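Database export, one record per block. Field names are fixed; values are copied verbatim from the stored entry.
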Amino acid sequence: MPQAIAFAAYGGPEVLQPTGIDIPEPDPDQVRVAVRAAGVNPLDWKLRSGNLAAVMPVPLPHIPGLEFAGTVDAVGDGVSGLEPGDEVFGRAQYAYATLLIADTALLRVRPDGLDVFRAAGLPVAAEAAYRGLDELGVAAGETVLVHGAGGAVGNLAVQFAVARGAHVVGTAAERVHQRLADLGAVPVSYGEGWAERVRAVAPRGVDAVLDTSGADVLGESVALASGGARRVLTLADPRAAEAHGVRFSSGEAQRTGPALDQALALHRRGTLTVPLHEPFPLTEAARAHAAGEAGGLDTKLVLTTEN
């Protein structure tokens, strides 16, 4: 029987427990995938803790997970271009499992050279980074400030913005400054005085600001952006967005395909960078959640079904 990790009640990481699951045959536009790795995201532990129960309740028991990499196990009638045995990665619900159903529009074939763990950690962050830059209308020659550039979303936002021909300034911990510089960004330390440090490296100001950090940065970001509040967008702080008159953007599955195409284009160029934490076994998902909630990580958390 296929296995999964689920929680039957809201609570700490310890509520994550193994469970058996039944997986149906795929619909005409779907494939069934034997999961090899699943990404772990902040939304996973926010749902598990119950912190979002008032606005995003989930039926219990609930299997977390929104991204995966694995091997096609079966294809729905009418699916073309994929067959059992193909290696794929993408976005799907209930990814903390050994088997899942995925829509073909939300996955891509995993190419040689992109390992299964980094592939599993791409879809959610890639979609968020792609969406943020798209909604801001970041164009070649513009200067964009990315808050939280050392995190999973910020890391890809830097790479996608550089690929657009933008100049990038990224706030991050000093321990990742060299990595950001290698990606083509100008790193700036976050924390008190960050705005002055940004002005020092971008004396003409910035055209747009993408906040992936959720830190208290939106007020000063509006003052920095040449387009004011309309060119500031946060992916992490809806309450502050409302307070400062800037936009908040949440996940849109339909942008996953184009976002993965952008990541794959960088992979083909040999420039895609996905810093990875040592994978946790699926059965130790609670440890992965605890590590994520503790904070301070500059690497992507993933689970593996492989021994």
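Remark 1: The chain is about 30% helix and 25% strand.
Remark 2: Residues 3-121+276-304 form a domain with the Quinone Oxidoreductase; Chain A, domain 1 fold (CATH 3.90.180.10).
End of record.
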